[in-house]
## 1
Amino acid sequence: MQQGRVLKAHGGYFFVYDATTDKVYQSKIRGRLKQRDVEVIAGDKVKFAILNDGSGIVEERLPRENSLFRPPIANVEQVVITVSISNPDLHFKLLDRLLILGRAADLEIVICVNKIDLVGIKKARKIMEYYKEIGYNILYTSAEEEINLGQLEEVLQDKISVFAGPSGVGKSSLLNAIQPDLKLRTGKVSDKIKRGRHTTRKVELLSLDRGGWVADTPGFSALDITFIRSRELHYFFVEMLNYINQCKFSSCSHSHEPQCAVKEAVDNGNIAQHRYDHYLEFLSEIEEKEAEWWRG
Ligand SMILES: Nc1nc2c(ncn2[C@@H]2O[C@H](COP(=O)(O)OP(=O)(O)OP(=O)(O)O)[C@@H](O)[C@H]2O)c(=O)[nH]1
Ligand SMILES: [Zn+2]
């Protein structure tokens, strides 16, 4: 039996890529897998057999490293969180939410600040300085003027990646710029808003010439973070990790408790105020959901 990766699941067919033959096999799935409710999605590693007519049959799904929910993709390794400083403006709260989602899915995270032609790299660096300090890997690109696209290619090489980020920041444009034969649909920011952009499409993993795969649909379209427990939220703010053990109360939620090391770090300027504010906002979102849960 062969081993392969599902690139796309569509209309009852699974398109399975086998690296040893460098071929894609249009495959059906064994009835017993369906009976056991084993769901197979893009990104899944599977064992499959090749039939006489050259098509495949999926016999087994191998264990998943992880899976993203909306859109559904398995075994993603990396998320490229793409933003722009202007057109559209950068929203730190959305960025922070995406950073949490990336970490919760256990993905490597790269922040890509695109449309650098509109603001200049120096200004963009300044705006993103804090995120650099707390350890994030940040690229500054322009799809339009082809700035630093080599760095993006390097980051994507030999990995399975998904892009994420607000509409109109240039996710599709970046992919098209590094590999024109991917031919992703791009559009003007205003057109998309008018048109309403939530036409559901099937996710497909696209093959990069330099090795690696990238999903053709942005990840994390559901921005809900309330699956995280309130007492665990602080783990998702990387710069808080140095402080959370130094609070007076071991169960400190860093919101109202006295002698909170996190709050002190905010007061001293070691943790950015906006990040702490977002922590508190997310915390109350989560607590509200937990309260609902307890009320039944
Ligand atoms: N000035 C400038 N414009 C860009 C750049 N990259 C993309 N654009 C433009 O921004 C608009 C949106 O680009 P898309 O690639 O469709 O953005 P997207 O992030 O894929 O958007 P969604 O598909 O809605 O999620 C298009 O008009 C692009 O031409 C860039 O680096 N600089
Ligand atoms: Zn605390």
## 2
Amino acid sequence: MKLLVTGGAGFVGATVTRLLLDAGHEVVVLDDLSRNDAAQVPADATFVQARVQEVGDVLTPDAGFDGVLHFAGLISAGESMTHPELHWEANTRAGLNLLDAMRTAGVKRLIFSSTAACYGEPSELPLTERAITMPINTYGATKLAVDLAIASEARAHKLAAVSLRYFNVAGALVREDGGMIGERHDPETHLIPIALEVAAGKREKLPMFGDDYPTPDGTCIRDYIHVADLAEAHLLALTAAVPGEHKIYNLGSGTGFSNAQVIDAVRTVTGHPVPVEWLPRRPGDPASLYASSALAQADLGWTPTRTSLEAIVADAWAFYQGR
Ligand SMILES: NC(=O)c1ccc[n+]([C@@H]2O[C@H](COP(=O)([O-])OP(=O)(O)OC[C@H]3O[C@@H](n4cnc5c(N)ncnc54)[C@H](O)[C@@H]3O)[C@@H](O)[C@H]2O)c1
Ligand SMILES: O=c1ccn([C@@H]2O[C@H](COP(=O)(O)OP(=O)(O)O[C@H]3O[C@H](CO)[C@@H](O)[C@H](O)[C@H]3O)[C@@H](O)[C@H]2O)c(=O)[nH]1
């Protein structure tokens, strides 16, 4: 297939682009480089520096695209509470622009990076796709809005669409030839890469947001999914998309780890101390999130295999040291 990958300079988009190219697809990456440089865009993809808001210049009726994988957007739940307008623009307005451009160009297949943040404070654990969607941060709201728009588009205009609701993506793609694609967000906001920076001596302390959550050790619980496992689900979703249907799948490893457990794993894997500075809760953080991915396993035949927290942190550390 000829595929447009938005956000393909980013952590997940670049990883999926690598797998798509390896599977024989032709890939055009579109990214405005607002949150990454182009260093991780695979050399055998075509790269276009542009905003999704201008995607119609690339996704023309004559360009011959068979589908779009839409990763571009802003990802930090914390930032979405302090700068909500940025998230409504980059996630929702851009997402609606993309749907318009796809309709105009007659491109009928879409895979969308949705998020566990759509569920808000969970109505059930593990979270299935039937859980109530009531985001408690603006990031989740801006992504849920796009999910709802995609559902209408599929119904009315026969789009074949799959939203993949990722839980916390981590690790790195480590290839047999030694090549790696990993997390290098700018600014970095995610727990594991920040803890690795502390372990490496690049930061003094890890700011830990909250010790008074209703969890066994008082810190938040998250479900860490290895980026290589996550990426494989996208290739399966591409072939599972059906015209007129909007399918939604949760992608997690199914196990919750507390923030304190994550820091312990970083200490173990790196062999370095990780001093912690305890701070108040970060606004917009649910206490506990972990997935049921039973539906993705049944429908897509997807099984995450890299589920050990130490192995996930070890790949992230290998990438951190090699970059
Ligand atoms: N990383 C996670 O834990 C996680 C979890 C759930 C969902 N997601 C979703 O997955 C997607 C990819 O996440 P990631 O970790 O690779 O993030 P990332 O920041 O590494 O990649 C996103 C890319 O989008 C680009 N971008 C942002 N706004 C743009 C715009 N308007 N036009 C063009 N490009 C734009 C950025 O420059 C960046 O390269 C995001 O949509 C995110 O919301 C990520
Ligand atoms: O310096 C830090 C960074 C994070 N945290 C905490 O670590 C946990 C995880 O935070 P983070 O790594 O920022 O991820 P989330 O806020 O859980 O969000 C991620 O995971 C969501 C899915 O669960 C995705 O939708 C988002 O895009 C992605 O950023 C939270 O309790 C944070 O408060 C800290 O204590 N200190």
